[in-house]
Amino acid sequence: MTRLGVDLGGTKIEAAILSADGEILTRRRAPTPPDYTGKVRAVADLAAAVEAETGLSAPHVGVGHPGSINPRTGLVRNANSTALNGKPLDRDLAEACGRPVACANDANCFALSEAVDGAGAGAASVFGVITGTGVGGGFVLNGELVEGADGIAAEWGHTALPRPSPEEVPGPFCKCGRESCVEAWCSGPAVAADHQRRTGVAMTAAEIAAGAAEGDPECVQTIALWVDRLARSMGTLVNIVDPEVIVLGGGLSNIEGAAERLEAALAPHCFTDEPRTKVRRNVHGDSSGVRGAAWLEPKAPR
């Protein structure tokens, strides 16, 4: 079956047609309009464009987006693309596209993509960990997304940093309004802020990672602290859902050796004498969002 996925991002929208075996046959990108009506129209237009280019059609459209859809109201909440909040995104997209639409959080799409035919292929349980602008996640069990009773499963970035040291208390404020969330410690902006607090030097996370690779001692220390904090936090994931594989995504996943270092640092925080969870870097990179969206299946109407 031909599949059509759309990744509705904050700055760009990408649509792709996938073959039944997961090959991307064509893809197109466009800037994301600032207004809600423009976003909906752009998704529909891109979906139509990739179908016209290939001469193929899909029975439904899968869309990955920021935030989540409240299962009771059908409205988007917690999206950093704030124009989406309070809107019936799936219903409006279905009308604009003229067919069923399956929507899911973009981190869930990443996890689904990597579980189907990426770094978690063949594993019964895969947790996708995204560390970039924020910290998010998705959990796939036996090939199915686990979204939870309220649609917020795997939002582990807004749990508290485990086992804080005295220097980590009370911890920085998170954009969600609480202190010491994992996102406030382990996202790209959080790593940059931590480095500046410790050293007085303003650098981006990418610059810090590059500095660490070149042996700069302050940058090495900042990345070591990030590994320690992220491993502590991932230990909570293992102790609750015990995934076979954790797949890393987001900009910080590109740090050389991050997966191997995190797997080693994770072991002491797992309640087992024989840790089995593997930590792997993603296979599909920036394509995981649109690929995961394409693998979505429509739900029964609310």
Structure report:
This protein has 302 residues and is α/β, with parallel strands linked by helices. It has 9 helices and 12 strands. The chain has helices at 36-54, 89-97, 106-117, 182-186, 188-199, 205-213, 217-241, 258-266, 288-295; strands at residues 3-8, 12-18, 24-31, 61-65, 68-69, 76-77, 101-105, 125-131, 135-141, 144-145, 245-249, 278-281. Helix 1 (36-54) packs across helix 2 (89-97) and helix 5 packs across helix 7. The model has no long low-confidence stretch (mean pLDDT 96).
Class inferred from helices and paired strands: alpha/beta
Spans with pLDDT under 50 lasting ≥5 residues? Answer: none
Q: Say what oligomer this is.
A: single chain
Distance between the termini: 25 Å
Q: What composes the largest sheet?
A: 5 strands, mixed
Which overall shape is indicated by the principal axes computed on the Cα atoms?
globular
Strand order of the largest sheet: 3-2-1-4-7
Instruction: Give average pLDDT, whole number.
Output: 96
The counted number of beta strands is 12
Number of helices: 9
Supply Rg.
Answer: 19 Å
Helix content: 25-40%
The ordered H/E elements are EEEHEEEHEHEEEHHHHEHEH
Strand-residue fraction? 15-25%
